[in-house]
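Fold these two proteins, one after the other.
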Amino acid sequence: MCSFSLKRLPWPCRAFILVLLLLPVIAVAGEPLRVVVISDMNGSYGSTRYEAPVDAAMARILELKPDLVISTGDMVAGQRRPHLSRKEIEAMWQAFHAHVSEPLAGAGIPFVVTPGNHDGSAYKGFALERAIYAEQWMPREPGVRFLDDAGNPYHYAFELGDVLFISLDATVVGHLPPSQMDWLHGVLDKYGQDYRRRVVFSHVPLWPFAQGRERDFIGDPDLQALLEAADVDLYLSGHHHAFYPGAMRGVAFVSQSCLGAGPRRLLGVKDRSPRSFTLIEISDDELNIAAIAAPQFESAIDWNTLPARIHSSVAKLKRADLSDAGVGRLRLE
């Protein structure tokens, strides 16, 4: 057997060989971080069936091989009265894992979640569903480095590459509890400036996007001010079932379309938002976004078909590419 040691070579030769060995690592490090966001995959109350767009989207996501997949909630179809039994709730989760969690795990793609009102509601009467949500996710290691996981799987913070990600527990309408606001302030104050980008995600959005959901939002000016002060780049949300890349005062707010039942119309728009998942590429200098639309999930929603602004009684969001939020359209190859 032959053996070889770099120590036997002159230093210039050793340095040259080390550079060659590190080139693949350097190339990978220079690539943008690719993140996919999926949302609102549930069907009718109690259903264990997932519509065809969910499976088609998952097949496409596996082809894209992103660095991370985020769910912004409503993975199963709970929050029903009369209340679902433990057996019914667990059957829904078993179906979800078969369609979504297990394919991602098998491909080695990290998958992180935040609770929605249909899978981890904090509304009174749904304590069992909320407890089972935690039971489902606590044992599932997402493959990321947590910075603060005391509230996992509801609210928590982690890093991936040079990006700080924060999940908020927002399953009810109205302001976040003071304890969670204090926690968020502490996380951003402690870790925020250590990262090139900061991304926050929750189920219920901070501001409204869709018709029929005009009252379903957090609506806290103090939260908006905190995001601005901490230089948060991106706030991702679900619940409104319509894609829109909006921005206000330097923060980009991206509402996800649904993959499951009930696509909705954006405020001031007559057509329903196509089912889609969101693809985000984050690099040192750019943050670009596309919504990849059903049924084939091969083409992106044209931002020119989206309104330049969305007006509600509480906020005015400008389309991100027309704003100063530093977010652009992702061009698909």
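Now the second one:
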Amino acid sequence: MRIAMLVHNRIHFGTFQRAHSLARHLVRLGHELTICAGAAQCGRPPRYATLDGVTIVEPFDPLPIRFREGGLSPFDVLNRLHYLLRRPCDLIHCFDHRPSVSLPGLLLARLRKIPSVIDWADLWGFEGIASERSSLMGASLGAFDTVLETAVRRKADALTVISTALQRRAQGRFPAPVHLLPVGANSDLIKPISKAEARGRLGFPENASIAVHTGLAPYDAEFLAQSFLQLVKLQPGALLVTTGRRFPALDRAIFSAGLTSQFTHLGMLGRDALPQVFACADALLLPYTDRSVNRFRYPNKLGDYLAAGRPIVTNRTGDLGQLVAEERVGLLADDTPEAFASSIKQLFDDAALRDELGRRARLLAESKLDWGFLAAGLERFYLETIARVRR
């Protein structure tokens, strides 16, 4: 099959990671994959590259990053149509609903008479992401997303969804077949590393109690901050190491408490550097409280955490909480900083428990949550969709 995937994020950011993780394994299964991503730089000429056998296309786009990264650029819409209409394609997979993804995807499917599949990885409207926005512009964009994320999926030939909450929602609203496609693990790229070796390389004390958090989503940053303050009461020498976005709420809380010497932020790291950081952890933190935006999504970092073979501390929300409970790859805490800190402390104190949960996490990453396993299931769904549309 010749498959085109459209994402509005830049290379290595957001949903690009989800699409590319699937695409590189579909290439291994013998298919031709192209991903159209958002432009990384304003006004740069179009760029074409190959990443793990997948053709990556970055368009020319003179607009600010809010438009390029947000899937709102008309230049992106036109450039994608221009590129895709000149190349053969058997199926198009749109990752989310923003105009730079859904408009060229659905139009190409109609013109070429090929199937369109639309992925649903977040609830964007007022029951989801929009509920976290406070500005007038955020509310306006939320209204736009509320309408568009439903409208475009009514036009799709098939849907993929990241969570069972979105699966139920899709099955109740749209006639198209729905395929559950959860977060996967790149177990071939991220592998367990010796804790002592990793701490030595990064300069952390070998015998320290270290919790690690990575991520971009700000939804539970305040909860993470308060949990760390509670943790220090239980374990005065505890260290917190973070990568990814810097959260002002976390910085303020740590500075106010006088704990800056126990906090290290390593910035945005590539996938080649992340395993070293994960390996330092006695506990990998994934705060995920019971709020609307969390019930429908599924954090991408779960797969990286599992592949690293370290135990996870999270909350009971959604598919994430259910998976951690059923697969016994970490500890679940109630939605209070005290409970979250207590679960981290439990892992600090029990090396045997840490090892067992970490071993189970790695086994899960190598089996039914490996992106290769998930890509094989997606391949079957693609073939079924093509056969059904051609009837």
